Amino acid sequence: MAILVVCSEKKDRQELSLKDDTFIFTDLDNSVFKRVLSGIQSELPFQYRPKQYLKTLHRLADQHGVTFLFNAYDYPGCIYTSVLAQERNLSAPPLDAILTCQHKYYSRKAQQKYVPEATPHFAIVSKEHLDDVKKLSFPLFVKPVKSYLSAFARPVYSMQELQQYLENVHIPKEFLISFDWAVKNYSDFEYDGSYFIAEQMLKGRQVTLEGYVFDGEVGLIGIVDSVMLPGTISFERFVYPSSLPQEVQEKMFDISARFVKGIGLDMSLFNIEFMYDDDTGDIYIIEINPRMAAQFCDLFAMVNGASNYDVLYDIVRGKKPNAYTGGSFDVAASLVCRQKEDQRVLHVPTEWDLQKAQCRFPELKYYPWIGTGNKLSDVLQDGTSYVYCWIHLGAQDRDELEKKYAESKELLPFRFEAV
Questions:
Q1: CA 351/CA 342 separation, integer angstroms
Q2: Strand-strand pairing, 122-125 and 196-200
Q3: What's the pLDDT score for residue 128?
């Protein structure tokens, strides 16, 4: 049995290497799309263009007798997986559901239909298209309809500020090639990826619900607290399990199930970012992604005893996921190490540093974002602060987690200088 991993990344190889099946990993480097979006790279290589890449996938599928497709990441992997499956009559999430989730305006339209109580007010916008937004009240939150790692997302407080935003923010056409190709050829959407969406500003506690759909049955993997740096839109940490009241979590799962069933998403993982207002009890959807949150796989493994990779692996092979239980920790977190200002990296943790840290905390996972000599702005950032690494840890409670985090940062030293 051969499984083709579409748009594979390093994490795929790490997580799938212990499985018994034959995996064929494609060589599409997703960081190219990040570099194009951030302006570091202006051209998309020829082999990354839709028709050329699909030819590569078909060739690999023929060569290896591929029977299943696996994709853990969002863009452009979700699109290519569904197109390839459609052309080869293989199992994969339906393409129309994928595009509905990925196009944030049409996702809101679908939310308005299936879960209106959880849908904030919104409008499609561009420099030439401002009529709809006049029906909304400022402040608003604006982002591209094809969002990616919070790039270009920010609040605006007046029509003048919105117009300035639309004049100055441009999504590179090269970044949108795969998305606009899919929208043009596989949907009836009026608006392509060059547009933006303006939305009602939300307040409260943010969480991410990770779930799956198997043969139309929706299941819950877990709900993760998404904690921001105060006064920013920068994530400071993700903590599992969530501290929200159980009844609130149950309402979020009900909203999730109604939506994914409504749009026909199936044989897929998904994650939905929610905002919960403690004062009013309101629950709103921030956005929906038709794929796993790979950043959380270590957290689920530490607490649940299996990661979301394990769940997706079951689904890909046509097997209903297990009710995984029995992790080694009661709480786990992805801790996002950031600097407030752009700086140059003088020193990163050595392999010896990492070995010492993992000897002290065997479950520790370390994910560097940057290398020595680089500026923090040399990688795609959210525009309000600068990530330099993730540290994933497990603990028996949140107090112990804080202590382990503080010690881990000392064991994994970075040094910076001003630029």
A1: 25
A2: antiparallel
A3: 93
- Distance of alpha carbon 403 from alpha carbon 97, whole angstroms: 43
Order of all β-strands in the sheet with 386-395: 283-289, 268-276, 205-214, 217-228, 235-240, 331-339, 386-395, 365-368
The closest of 153, 197, 209, 151 to 175, measured between CA atoms, is: 151
Q: State which fold the 121-200 domain adopts.
A: Dna Ligase; domain 1 (3.30.1490)
Amino acid at 266: D
Find where tokens 């949140």 sit: 398
Q: Are strands 66-70 and 2-5 parallel, antiparallel or unpaired?
A: parallel
- Please report, as a single letter, which amino acid is at residue 321: P
| CB-based contact 136:129 (threshold 8 Å) | no
Question: Is 200 exposed, middle or buried (CB count within 10 Å of its CB: 0-12, 13-18, 19+)?
Answer: middle
Rg of the chain on CA atoms, in Å: 21
Rounded to whole angstroms, the Cα distance separating 55 from 84 reads 10
Whole-model pTM: value is: 0.94
C-alpha angle 9-10-16 in degrees, rounded to nearest 5:
95
Q: What are the sequence ranges of the domains in the chain?
A: 2-92, 121-200, 205-418
- The matching CATH number, chosen from 2.40.30.10, 3.30.470.20, 3.40.50.1390, 3.90.1150.10, for 205-418 is 3.30.470.20
Residues of the chain with pLDDT under 70: none
